[in-house]
Structure formats: C-alpha cells, structure tokens
Amino acid sequence: MRSHHSSLSLTRIAAASLVAVTLLSACGKKDAPAAGGAPGGGMPAPEVGVITTKFEQVALQTELPARAEPFRTSQVRARVDGVVLKRLFTEGSEVKEGQSLFQIDPGPYQAQLAAAQADVGSAQATLNQATAQANRYKPLVEANAISQQEYTNAVAAQKQAEAAVAAARARVRIAQINSGYANVYAPISGRIGRALVTEGAIVSAAQATELALIQQTNQMYLNITQSASELQRLRKQAGGSGSSANVPVTVLLDDGTELAARGKLLFSDVTVDQGTGQVTLRATVPNTDNALLPGQYVRVRIAQAQLPNGIIVPQQAVTRGGAQGDTLTVIGADNKPAQRTVKIASQQGSSWIVTEGLKEGERVMVDGFQKLQMLPPGTPVKAVAWQATAPGAAAPAGPAAPATANAAAGSAQTAGQVPASAPSGSTAGAAPAAGTPRR
Question: How many folded domains does the chain comprise?
Fold first, then answer.
C-alpha cells in the first residue's frame, strides 16, 4: 500500500516538473524580445533629435563696439567780462531753451548803455542845428546872397551830423547787447551738468570761459568702429551689397541686456583710418528713459548684409573651434551619424548661420549626443524631429521627447527592472528570469 502511494507521489512530482518546465520555456520565449528590444537580442537604435536644413534669406549680423554721444551738445560760455553774481539753475536738471542760467554783474554795461544813449542825444542836437543851417542857406544861395561854397559846407555838416547820430545809435545797440549778455541764457533745451564756475568768479569773453554744459540725451548717437576687412568680408558674403541707411541696430548694455528701443544706422564712413584700419559708422537710437549716458561704452548688433541662401542651425548642434574647425553631426540616408565641417557666418539669436558645408534637406543632429558616446562609431540611430524648449521648462510629453522616455525604459529593462508603465502581466515573466520558480 505504501508503494502504491509512493509511485503516485512520484507521478505527481514528475507531472508538476513537466508543467513548470513548459511554463518556463513559454515565459522565456515571450520575454526574449522585451529584454533585447530588437529581433536577435540587440538593443534598439537610440533616438536623437534632428532638424531638416533649408535655405532661407538671413541677415548677416555682426556685433561691434560703440560709444554713446548726445544728439546735441552746447557749451555755455561767457560773452562778456565780469563777476558771476548768481547761479540760477539746479545742477543735473532739465533746462529749457532761453532759460536764465547765470547772472554776471550788469553794472558796467548798464553804465555804458546810459553813456551811449547820451551820445545819441548829443548827436541828434548837432544834427538838428546842421539841418536848420542848411535849410536857411538854401534860398540864400538861390538868390546869390551867399556863395555856393558856404551852402555846400552847410549840407556837408548836416550829413556828418546824421552819420554821428547813426554811430551813436549803434553804440547804444552794442551796449544793450552787452548788458543782455550779463544774463546768461540756455542756448538749447536739455540736461545741464554741474556748474563750472561759482559765484564771485571772474569770467572773460576773450578767453570764452565755459560756465556749464547742456546735452540733449532724449536721443543719442552711437559712434561705431569696425574693421575695414570685416566690412569687406560681409559685403563679399552678401554678394557685394554693403550696408545702407536705416538698417536696424540693437544696443547691448555692458551687462549683456538688450535695450528695448531699436536704433537705425545713419551712414558708414567712406575713409579708412590709416592708424587703426577701421571705418566709423554712426547710428541713432531713442533714449527717452536715459538708459544710455553720454560717453558710455556699449555693443551694437547690426545686420549689415542679406544672405540669400543661408541655413540656420541651433548653437547646441555646432562644435566651434575644434581641430577641424567648426563641425556638426549629420544623419545620413543610412541613419548613421557623420561629422561635417561647416563655415559659420554670424550669429542670429541662439542660432548660427551656416554658409558652407550643408545642403538643403539634410538632417542635422541637435540632441542626443550623450547616447552616442557609449556606442561604436557608425552605429545607426533613429532620427526624430527636435523641438526647442524654453530654458527651465519641462520636457514635452508628446513626440518632442520620445527619445528620453524610450531611453529611460530601455535602461530599466537592461537592469532587469520593469518600467512603471509596463503591463502587470510583465511581472510574471520577470520572476523566472530572476531564477526563482513559482510554486
């Protein structure tokens, strides 16, 4: 009886072992593609972000140094000699044209004016006397009561008296002007700086003593310097067309921020400086908020030429200054990445403008370089469309970031783990792979 039970137990154990082996074989075949990710047990091709190149008309921009200069500048100077009695403005304030700024002692000039007016009265009296005498002599000379010479002398005396009156009136006018110059007015409207003289200082018209400086800063000039060879290179890249007036100008402050107001290029000098080999360009820019100060050093970005067939590539796709020059990675028709040497013309925002080394319709790799570092050269990749994201923004969950999601899933499978998004049935295949049979 015991032998019968023993044989029955052995039969049950053998049947259970056969079922277990069958289940293990089925699970192993089911999980083989999932573990490998590709037929034959190979890893899936890594996904990389690419852009497709296209020709377009782009502006060749260049960044140049510049100095800010006031739109108008006026030096307030003394036009008469004297002692400064008062300063009639607040230093650093806005002044209007014709506003009184300084008061020079007017006493001497008022006295000169009074003397000149007295001379006019004296000359006018002499003129009245000479005129009366000439009028009396006229009928007498006609009646031959006096000689013609006496009448001629009387008429000459009248003319001299008239000239003396005119000269005296001119001296009055000069005295009035000098008396007016004793009150110094603002020649233009603008912002006035510090006073260069104090009350009690003696100023001189002969030395043209400077009293203050007024600058109009609501609009500024930008004096830009550029190498003549650089200007010729830009013209050559644009097919010979040079910079012209009204070209927009972007101003970059010393901290790298862009000025909100845009300026425009007025002209470029036609003469090259023999000492520096540079040409001078002048632009104007609005400055209503006084963001620019006279004499301030800034940098400007100017689109000096238009390139008809340029290719715009994100900066992160290009390696600059390597042993082979500027390079990027192109995904060929066989989906294999290859390095390509290109020529960069200028910068446009966060992108480079490529003028040589690329053709229209090629795929340039922008993202996923770290995935290729652990793979042999020439390994095929899977190219997906790359989309730029704002700095600090989360990666999109759609087609813009499939490479990242699949890479994470692939790394989890390689480590023998199941991704969180895997179906619950995958767990059944994971247990046998770990070598722990179910009972």
Answer: 2
